[in-house]
Amino acid sequence: MSQWKNLGLWLALAMVVLLGFWPIFSRDASGREAAFTILLAIVMASSLNIVMGYTGYVSFGHVVFYGLGGYVGMYALSALGWPLPLAVLAGGAGSATLAFLLGKAILRLRGSYFALATIGVNEAARTFVANFAPFGAATGIELQFSIYKPYGGAMQALWLTYYAVVAIAIFAVLFSFLIKNSKFGLGLMSIREDEDAAEVLGIVTPNAKTMAFVLSAILPGMIGTLFFFKNGNVEPGDAFRLGFSIESLVMIMLGGQGTVLGPVLGALGYQRLRTTLLTSDISIGSLPLKDFQLVISGVLMLLIILFIPGGLVGWLRQRFPSLRRVLA
Amino acid sequence: MTLILQVEGVSKRFGGLQALMQVTFDLAQGHILGLIGPNGAGKTTLFNTINGVFTPDEGRIRFLGRDVTGAKPYDMARMGMARTHQIVRPLNELTVRENVMAGACFGHENQGLRQASIIADEVMSFAGLAARANQLAGSLNVAQKKRLEMARALAAHPKLLLLDEVLAGLTPSEIDGMVKTILEIRSQGVTIIMIEHVMKAIMNVSDRIFVLEYGMQIAEGKPEDVVRNPKVVEAYLGDPQMAKRLMEEG
């Protein structure tokens, strides 16, 4: 099919594959950790893009799916003793269920009201989990070290987790592309352009929006489980960090919302910048600046919205119209 | 003669404004109904009520024999109703082709992408948009956007087509082209309701004319009878000689 002749898709896949396979061949643990973080960002940005880029609904609550999925997965691992693959699926299913319920409730809101509601959802989820006894309330869930035994010890488990993350990241890019080029995706983009006109065309907007929300929630839930499994513990503060949602937004804006390549480029670029900032000693007077990347991401977002609202890919497509057909 | 649409005593009120009052009419399959009336008479509101954007406060609407009062716009579209908007609503960041495909994909035929693309090609050449297929809808000019509205509605292969001022703002030659297009659509068996201010055009193409004023129906009938109806002449045209002049003009 001609739709597969798409430079954007292959570029995105190539980047994810190169990045993902590099540490596997070099067997380099610190490289693996760095790649893990970037792949995580790619999955978050690509999945958020389904709601934000395709459907046009800006969500500040994307981290909820990561956090809640992580909690569900960790609960399945520690309290129910499920094997990792099942727990990962449970994490995805947990997030999807939450997205379905939330979608029914808040997707009737439009524009800034929806965005505000998603911030509320994030805070509510964190407070709820911090007081929910089965999830360990404020202290969270800690895994026993023995849990890594069936996977050949902690070292081996780390690699195993990493392979899964690489696979999910590749899937996230493919998934994003398939949705964009499907009839369902055409419906989502129609909603983005003009929701009332979309309804008149026959798009059952409440269902389509809820479906988009659910599809965007599954992968973060799965990857959340993997991340916290690797970490060995999960706490409300780590799981529901509003900053992570905002960073995902910045990555999408940076790379180009509504495109397949954009979130991947954005995640790579942003994480690169973040690492540089984290490892450099920036200080005001004698005080070191903590989380300076958040300052940068705020400024970056402002600049992008003001000057290149289409992000890098959007800018390229505008500058070189012939690229429009090949850059998904 | 089968009735495709039955509007029975439909009223709609917005706060203190009675936008529609006890509007009743039947529409036979294959006919063109012209909907006229002064600005603010409630013509577009009637469209919005028929296709489910608004729920009527009173009255019932039947489409294809089914009671569809209170149904949503997407329910109506999936049953085979399509419309254009007076103020064009293109999906700006999508191409012309994608706009038209969306019409085919989500209408009552529920086409897949491949089939929708074939339909889009047909409809775009019919509407004179073939050369613009890969252009963004936002980059079209007004006349082209009106044609896009029409193409998108037609791609759904609707049974009933609501046209809201598709001739407004077009040049006389464009109007002639559009009128031809409308007659062709009708010859394919599509029933049409059209709102129009271009009198000569609507009087020529309509089988029946329906006149609204202040949300009330003041006349309904054949074009030649309606223009002679003193109430219409008085309310809508103001000057009894105006009707005659308009009919003779251009």
Would you write up a description of this structure?
The complex is a heterodimer of chains A (328) and B (250). Chain A is mainly α and 328 residues long. Chain A has a single domain, classed as ABC transporter involved in vitamin B12 uptake, BtuC (Orthogonal Bundle), CATH 1.10.3470. Chain A has helices spanning 7-26, 29-54, 62-78, 84-106, 111-130, 153-180, 183-193, 195-201, 205-231, 236-239, 242-255, 261-279, 292-307, 311-319; strands at residues 141-142, 233-234, 283-284, 287-288. In chain A, the strands form 2 sheets. A two-stranded antiparallel sheet of chain A has the order 1-2. The mean pLDDT of chain A is 89. Chain B has 250 residues and is of the alpha/beta class. Chain B has a domain at 1-80 and 195-250: Rossmann fold (3-Layer(aba) Sandwich). Chain B is 39% helix and 25% strand. In chain B, α3 packs parallel to α5, α4 crosses α5 (142-155) and α9 (230-237) packs across α10 (240-248). Chain B is globular. The chains are: A mainly alpha (328), B alpha/beta (250). The A-B interface holds A 182-183, 186-187, 189-190, 192-194, 196-205, 258, 325 and B 51, 53, 72-74, 77-78, 82-83, 85, 89-94, 98, 101-103, 105-108, 112-113, 116, 134, 152, 156.
How would you summarize the topology of this molecule?
The complex is a heterodimer of chains A (328) and B (250).
Chain A: H1 7-26, H2 29-54, H3 62-78, H4 84-106, H5 111-130, E1 141-142, H6 153-180, H7 183-193, H8 195-201, H9 205-231, E2 233-234, H10 236-239, H11 242-255, H12 261-279, E3 283-284, E4 287-288, H13 292-307, H14 311-319
Helix pairs in contact in A: 1-2, 1-6, 1-12, 2-6, 2-9, 2-11, 2-12, 3-4, 3-5, 3-9, 4-9, 6-9, 7-8, 7-9, 11-12, 11-13, 11-14, 12-14
Chain B: E1 3-14, E2 17-28, E3 32-36, H1 43-50, E4 58-63, E5 66-67, H2 73-79, E6 81-83, H3 96-106, H4 113-126, H5 142-155, E7 160-164, H6 172-187, E8 191-195, H7 199-205, E9 208-213, E10 216-221, H8 223-226, H9 230-237, H10 240-248
